[in-house]
Amino acid sequence: MRNPYEVLEIGEGASEEEIKAAYKRLVRKYHPDQYANNPLSDLAEEKLKEINEAYDFLIKNKGNYTGGQKSNNWGNQQYNNSSSSIYAQVRAYIERGHINQADQILEGITNRNAEWNFLKGIIFLRRGWYDMAYQHIQLAVNLDPTNTEYRAALSNLASRANAYRNVGNNRGYRRDPSFCEICQCLICSDCLCECLGGDLVRCI
To answer: Domain named J: which ranges (predicted)?
Structure first.
């Protein structure tokens, strides 16, 4: 299992109030009611289970995190506090639309793991580089196939792009590559914005 702080999308050493606030936000986001009759319902259920486990662990063992590299019985996984905090900062920059700052931080990280590739993919997507975005998010899934957030984002990206393209073809819209690429960038940007708590195109 992943670092519980990463699951709750907060920096390590967060206060109990911050942990509870993050938990409530994520539970609302992945609540089953949000995914009724949705093909992503199974992934949302897995994500919610992961969130609950992370929250329970942090509340029960909050005194065990004192900084530095630690190993714990939460999946016997080792991680680095500073790395987790950096990724939390990158996510915060992306949510606020500070893409250049987020990218600058990522470029300074030498350990380019699944989380690095996922966030890099979102940055590429925000800049309109759809192919590079898809490659990085796909790589994130390959590196961490049990991560429900990465899998949901990739599935959502692909399914929404295909659905939008099919609707356009059925209605006789233009099918030249440049127009399709623009539509794909918009639809994929919107779905990944939603993964980070935002909304680019409200009508999608």
So the answer is: 3-83
78 φ/ψ angles, rounded to the nearest 5 degrees: -100, 145
The domain boundary, picked from 13, 30, 61, lies at 61
Q: Tokens 């109030």 — which residue?
A: 17
The span from the CA of 37 to the CA of 156, in Å, is 14
Buried b (16+ CB within 10 A) or exposed e, 52-91: ebbbebbeeeeeebeeeeeeeebeeeebebebbbbbbebb
Question: Which pLDDT tens digit goes with each residue over 42-62?
Answer: 777 878 888 898 888 888 886
In a domain, residue 199? The reply is: no
Using alpha carbons, select from 51, 10, 5 the residue that is nearest to residue 27: 51
How many domains does the chain fold into? 2
